[in-house]
Specification:
Low-confidence stretches: none
Order of helices and strands: HEEEEEEEHHHHEHHH
Strand content: 15-25%
Helix content: 55-70%
Shape: rod-shaped
Number of helices: 8
Number of strands: 8
Structural class: alpha+beta
Length: about 280
């Protein structure tokens, strides 16, 4: 009899323990009765029928952080980039979350990965690398409807990394180096071109001024000859004297030159002296 009483108390204790459920704040529990959904236990004290009701799922109703793993994505211009993301979701309908999809976290993660590949696949490499906010907005918009069907709300999706693959980085570095070298050659060529243009302009200006100087000198010489001719008139003596004086001065300058090793004496020296003195032999 005593054993029966003890067994009965134990059974009553186990039954009571199975019938009382305390759900912590931030969770909701799904209860099934005989294998079928029966109800949802909310935070606080809850009573269920032992042996008939069973807590099948315990869901966290706080924001859930999903880390979307890194993956390689091919852009429209066949460039390979590496990207990953992180999503913040919240269970808003526990029934849909547990009965709408096998594993809602894995489902959302896979959907983000496939949607990310699709969005970036429509972009060129430069667009993909410079439009992170645009990708984020399209990604969130694309998965929002599916998430609602699964009893989830996508609060935010952040692109963590979006960068060229190692092979693409190497190719881009080589391309950048080639571009810098090309620009350096263009700059050097432009500099040489400008230098040649300036030198040609300098030669042209010098030649033009030399020509103007020669013309001016010729005009001055002509004017001087004209005035001398007018001053001399019919008398040739002064002119002969002037020419002879210049002749002697030229010979003196030639003889005094440091490079003069030979002095040329004109054969008509006497005639020259006579011309200077204005005499005739």
């Amino acid at each position: 009899m005593m054993i029966f009483v003890v067994a009965l108390l134990v059974f009553a204790g186990i039954t009571l323990a199975k019938g009382i459920r305390i759900v912590p704040q931030g969770e909701e529990w799904i209860v099934e009765r005989l294998g079928k959904y029966h109800g949802t236990l909310h935070p606080g004290l809850n009573i269920i029928i032992p042996y008939l009701d069973q807590v099948r799922y315990k869901l966290v109703t706080k924001d859930i952080i999903l880390d979307v793993q890194e993956q390689e994505v091919i852009t429209r211009d066949n460039a390979v980039i590496v990207t990953n993301a992180i999503a913040f979701i919240k269970v808003t309908d526990p029934i849909k979350a547990v009965y709408g999809v096998t594993d809602f976290a894995e489902a959302i993660r896979n959907m983000i990965m496939t949607t990310l590949r699709s969005i970036i696949g429509e972009m060129n490499l430069d667009e993909a690398l410079s439009n992170r906010d645009k990708i984020k907005a399209r990604l969130r918009e694309s998965i929002a409807d599916e998430a609602i069907d699964w009893g989830l709300t996508v609060k935010s999706v952040e692109i963590q990394d979006i960068k060229p693959s190692p092979s693409m980085q190497k190719a881009m570095e080589m391309q950048a180096a080639a571009e810098r070298e090309r620009k350096a050659m263009v700059t050097k060529s432009e500099g040489e071109k400008q230098s040649m243009i300036l030198q040609a302009e300098a030669r042209l200006e010098s030649a033009r001024r030399d020509a103007e100087a020669q013309v001016t000198l010729a005009e001055a010489s002509a004017e001087a000859i004209k005035r001398v001719s007018q001053a001399i008139g019919e008398n040739e003596g002064p002119m002969r004297y002037m020419l002879g004086e210049k002749y002697i001065m030229a010979m003196t300058k030639l003889a005094g030159s440091d490079n003069a090793k030979t002095i040329l004496i004109p054969g008509d020296l006497q005639e020259t002296i006579r011309a200077v003195l204005g005499r005739k032999g």
